[in-house]
UniProtKB/TrEMBL annotation:
Protein name, as recorded: Cytochrome P450
GO biological process terms, semicolon-separated: organic acid metabolic process; xenobiotic metabolic process
Cofactor: heme
Assigned GO CC terms: cytoplasm; membrane
Main location, first listed in the record: membrane
Keywords assigned by UniProt, alphabetized: Heme, Iron, Membrane, Metal-binding, Monooxygenase, Oxidoreductase
Positions annotated to bind heme: 436
GO molecular function: heme binding; iron ion binding; oxidoreductase activity, acting on paired donors, with incorporation or reduction of molecular oxygen, reduced flavin or flavoprotein as one donor, and incorporation of one atom of oxygen; steroid hydroxylase activity
């Protein structure tokens, strides 16, 4: 009897909330929420076209009810700049999500923490990353070492049709390894292969677990319909490997300036604060979560961008030839391109920027949490509202990029003299205080990988008709479906 009363009360509460009119000061709801589940079943696996249509109908800000949670979707550059830059104090916190909870140490690190703890962890992480590079020779040398091994692999394929995805993923992960633990792995190292496999599996399954962010009890259903158990297992395996890395780099005495990798530098800075009696959130849990985030985000996003760029170049061979001609003119073939060449290769830079824009590999940024009642563009956003930044709405906005916004056109990033024209609307890494921690590192990797690739090789489609640039699979990132390319050494073309 008590159980029936409970069920009845839940149903009646759901009906009441469904029949009640929403606050007129809230952003509009494109679809009337259903009882209990809200708008969850109105969304497809890929919400990009749906959000685009709703933006056109309802404006740059609209609301969703996701299992009882108020979610507001922000579209357009002006709206995002006002929220995440001008009103950053109200829009910079994070929501609790399943992926973070699966680590067993939620709200730690940089990506999923908030408040003073997040500010300290981000500041420390940026300081360490700047120490190891962001343009300095020490990091460039580490990346070049990985790139050299990567292009040797490409050369070994001898023009046979090859899917470069796996080796690209391995190589970008090795760059992160070089920074985090101070050395790279051999491609056939068993622990390294295990790390890659579990990182990749987690990335592919992200979309399946998203419903649990809003209806947490779904993870307790029999079986593993939403991949919660699989993702938890993958995350725990990765964390166990990272714990070994931390243990191997824990020296008794180490000065920050003498640290040889990220782990040593973090531990040195923590010990310095503890010894000085300075209050700090720095501990093993925050270290573990931060390096986990660097591995997860730094590997998948960079490798996926490289794959997209190759796909665009085999679809636009005249652009690939223009990139090659520029490299030959400014660098030649007797040495490898380096970061000092970046300003000399504006067309390559424009190709990379256009790839980031059009591929839009992370169309929806991580969820934000509104930490106070705030007004945005005339709408009331209540405290506790979850915020979805729709980066896609900026990167593909015809009002910004022109009527040909969905065409691949590197020239949009060049001025009348052929120099690179930076555009503040290019926000593939996000905007405001929560912009991706590894943005500078990713841009260095993209330039060094792609400049070396296009210097050494011509990339051709496996068949006469290249794979389409307009289809993709949606996981942690929007990635092209697997495809093969023929990789011909440029010396065969001369």
């Amino acid at each position: 009897m008590e159980f029936l009363l409970l069920i009845a009360s839940i149903i009646l509460t759901g009906l009441y909330l469904w029949l009640r009119r929403p606050d007129p000061n809230l952003p509009p709801f494109p679809k009337r929420p259903l009882p209990l589940v809200g708008n969850l079943f109105h969304l497809a696996d890929d919400s990009r076209p749906l959000f685009k249509r709703w933006r056109k109908q309802f404006g740059d800000i609209f609301s969703l009810n996701m299992g009882g949670t108020l979610v507001v979707v922000l579209n357009g550059f002006d709206v995002m700049k006002e929220a995440f830059v001008k009103k950053a104090d109200a829009f910079s916190d994070r929501t609790p999500v399943f992926f973070d909870a699966a680590t067993g140490i939620p709200e730690k690190g940089v990506a999923f923490s908030s408040g003073p703890e997040w500010k300290e962890q981000r500041s420390v992480a940026l300081t360490i990353l700047r120490k190891f590079g962001m343009g300095k020779n020490i990091l460039v040398d580490k990346i070049q070492d990985v790139v050299s091994a990567y292009v040797d692999y490409l050369a070994s394929q001898k023009g046979q049709p090859t899917d470069i995805r796996t080796m690209t993923n391995i190589s970008t992960c090795n760059v992160i390894c070089a920074i985090i633990i101070g050395h790279k792995f051999e491609f056939n190292d068993k622990e390294f292969q295990k790390l890659i496999a579990h990182l990749n599996s987690t990335a592919l399954d992200q979309k399946n677990v998203s419903l649990i962010n809003y209806i947490s009890w779904l993870k307790y259903l029999p079986g593993d319909l939403f991949f919660a158990k699989k993702i938890t297992l993958n995350v725990q395996v990765v964390l166990s490997l990272l714990k070994k890395f931390v243990a191997a780099n824990r020296r008794t005495v180490v000065d920050f300036n003498d640290a040889g990798n990220f782990i040593e530098a973090y531990l040195a800075e923590r010990n310095k604060k503890v010894q000085a009696g300075v209050s700090t959130y720095m501990d093993d849990e925050n270290l573990l979560k931060t390096i986990h985030e660097l591995f997860g985000a730094g590997t998948e996003t960079t490798s996926t961008t490289i794959i997209w760029c190759v796909l665009y170049m085999i679809n636009y061979p005249e652009m690939q030839e223009k990139v090659y001609a520029e490299i030959m003119e400014e660098v030649g073939s007797s040495r490898l391109p380096n970061m000092q060449d970046k300003t000399k290769l504006p067309y390559l830079n424009a190709v990379i920027m256009e790839t980031q824009r059009l591929a839009s590999i992370v169309p929806l940024s991580l969820l934000h949490l509104c930490s106070e009642n705030v007004t945005l563009k005339g709408y009331t956003i209540p405290k506790g509202t979850w915020i979805i930044p729709n980066l896609d709405s900026v990167l593909h906005d015809k009002a910004i990029w022109g009527k040909d916004a969905m065409s691949f056109k590197p020239e949009r990033f060049l001025d009348s003299t052929g120099k690179v024209q930076d555009r503040e609307e290019l926000i593939p890494f996000g905007i405001g205080r929560r912009v991706c921690l590894g943005e500078a590192l990713a841009n260095m990797e993209l330039f060094l990988f792609l400049s070396n690739m296009f210097q050494r090789f011509q990339f051709l489609p496996k068949d006469k008709t290249p794979p389409s640039c307009n289809v993709y699979r949606f996981g942690l990132t929007c990635a092209p479906y697997p495809f093969e390319v023929r990789i011909l050494p440029r010396k065969q073309q001369e």
